[in-house]
Amino acid sequence: MAVAGQVGSAYWPGCSPAREKYVARFRGLISAMSMSKQGARAKYLGIPLSTLSNYWTGRRVPSAVTLGAIYDAVRRTAAVVPDQLEHLERLRKSAARRNTRPVSPRENSDICAAERMSAAPSVQPAFGACNRSGADPAQRPARDRRSSENGKAVETVRALCAAQSAGDRRGVIGIAWSANKALTHEELSLAAADLYASGHSALGEALLLGGRERGHEETMRLAITLIRADLPIQAELVLRAALPRGGGGQPE
């Protein structure tokens, strides 16, 4: 087992051959970064170390938007990028399909135990934990919604980046305000995650703070959604922004 922050070589036991092929190329992309420690890489990419570790072992597969953001970030620090994004995306699509490799009962038990230890009790992993045969029908609508949410999140991210590139600060504020009115908490969370992952933390903050006038209940729901998306710091940002100025006690 690798020490935290260092690079391990083992694949997640439930990886299918397609996922192992993708992970090998993903590791090549990450290894092209100028820093050698996973902790430093995760910090530069703007994602939690646990998330990068899950991507590295193949336990989870990033969304297309997240992979694109990671690829762009790697290009900024790597002398040579070993793969084309289009090739990685084709491999990612195959890897994201349900695994076909049989998992022994003992492996399945170990996988589930590890996921219970690393995940918050109320958090559902983005990519099927334990990969039991036969998906829960109740989860199918969630996957359908996720495709729609990804599309709206992508549009928001692109609009914010375009406004920033044009030096249009007022446009950034307007887009962030409109997004908070039009997007669901899940869509806001997806867009924010992609912005932070690609190094656009200022845009991520602008997006999350674009709805400062939201009520207490809405603020709490958004914060919970961010926590479930592995964005606890951003959840705290939203909560702190909602606190009455000059009032109340110190948060615990």
Set down the secondary structure blueprint.
Blueprint: H1 17-31, H2 38-45, H3 49-57, H4 64-77, H5 85-96, H6 105-118, H7 140-165, H8 169-182, H9 185-197, H10 201-208, H11 216-228, H12 232-242
Helix pairs in contact: 1-5, 2-3, 4-5, 4-9, 7-8, 7-9, 8-10, 9-10, 9-11, 11-12
Q: Note poorly predicted spans.
A: 1-6, 110-148, 246-252
Please compute the radius of gyration using only Cα atoms: 19 Å
* SSE class: mainly alpha
Largest sheet, strands/sense/barrel: none
Give the amount of beta strand, in percent. Answer: under 5%
* Nearest-integer average pLDDT: 76
Oligomer kind? single chain
Span from first to last CA?
Answer: 35 Å
* Helical residues, percent: 55-70%
How many DSSP helices?
12
| Shape, per Cα inertia axes | globular
Number of strands: 0
- Give the topology string: H per helix, E per strand: HHHHHHHHHHHH
Please explain how this structure is put together.
Mean pLDDT is 76; it is low at 1-6, 110-148 and 246-252. The radius of gyration is 19 Å and the shape is globular. The chain contains twelve helices and no strands. Helix content is 62%, strand content 0%. Helix 2 (38-45) crosses helix 3 (49-57) and helix 7 (140-165) packs antiparallel against helix 8 (169-182). The chain has 252 residues and is mostly helical.
Summarize the model shown.
The protein is an all-alpha fold and 252 residues long.
